[in-house]
Amino acid sequence: MLIKKISNRHVEVKMYGNIGGWFVDGFNFTNLLDSFEEDGYEEVTFRMHSYGGTVFEGDVIGGAFARSKMKINIIIDGIAASMACMILPYVPTENVSIAANGFGMVHRPEGGRGGNASQHLQTAKLLLDIEGNFIKTLSERTGKAAEEVKKFFDGSDHWLNADEMIEWKLAGKKINAVAPIRKLDKESLQKMSEENAYGHFAAKLEPKSNFQNTSKMKKELINAFNLEGLTEESSDTAVIQALQNKFKTTEDRLKALEKASTEKKEAEIKARLDKAEKDGKITAETRDKYKSIGDKNGVDVLDTVLQSIGDPKQTTPISTKIEGGKGDTPKAGDKNWKWYQENDPRALEQMPESDPDKFKALYKAEFGVEPEL
Description:
- It is built from 16 helices and eight strands.
- By secondary structure, it is of the alpha/beta class.
- Strands 1, 2, 3, 4, 5, 6, 7 and 8 form an eight-stranded mixed sheet that branches.
- β3 (43-53), α2 and β4 (71-81) form a beta-alpha-beta unit.
- The chain is elongated, with a radius of gyration of 35 Å.
């Protein structure tokens, strides 16, 4: 958005591009209007050239216009298509002007999402609800019956020239053309997308310096993220969509790697527990406890724990070898991790809940790391 001070009481803002893209969104607009009021402005003129965008962002912008204490003017320099056109009823008709070669466009709201049948039905209901709101808004604005307004929502793009915009009270007056370009007719527009129609005006409407700055910003984004098939002349929507696709691809790849890593870890833990159970080191009843150690602390810690469990076939406890071969089982007064394993394993199993501090101390003394309880 470019901001131009007209006087101490009047400021002008260029509202070009995609509703919901770059800086043309509800958050920035509400903050912008608040800041203008704080600075003492009494009138704001928005010069519009937009091919539409997000319905919900547009609703926020329109609501901000309606609530503002300032006088809001809109001048349509090129086109006000789709959601950009549906913002106009939030501003008094007499405050909206359109260039003689400008156009508005109304059509059914569009949207899409992946998912199952229920999710598609939810999306369809949402779109029908939005369409109902559009019909009500236009009916109230024009004073025409809802049945007459519904003709704009038959699935086609309905382009309105400057005179028709005034007829339907979406604009109050016509002004001289801002961009000295070949006048488009409605038949030509019907063969264009909103973005192509936008581009027809853009080169003439955008000051060269601003166009270069915007192009440079797009080019830097395209190069930084290696967005194939795009140039600095690509639309905002195309760049944003490419970025979203790029991030989704990266996110999907990370999820796949994370899944593969998790599956590998689970397979390694299972293999170790299967062997430990086969060797008699653990039982089916205690298996979950050791699986939890592997899940929380990793395979290496699980290996250390399992290795510390003595061979059940040995008649001499492994602890005697660690203590220099005395052949004595640790005394009750020296109840360390090994003592509990050999003399009271059930107490050791219950200790994380009955005495977690003691369990942590024994665990750390034995394995050198804090357990995750």
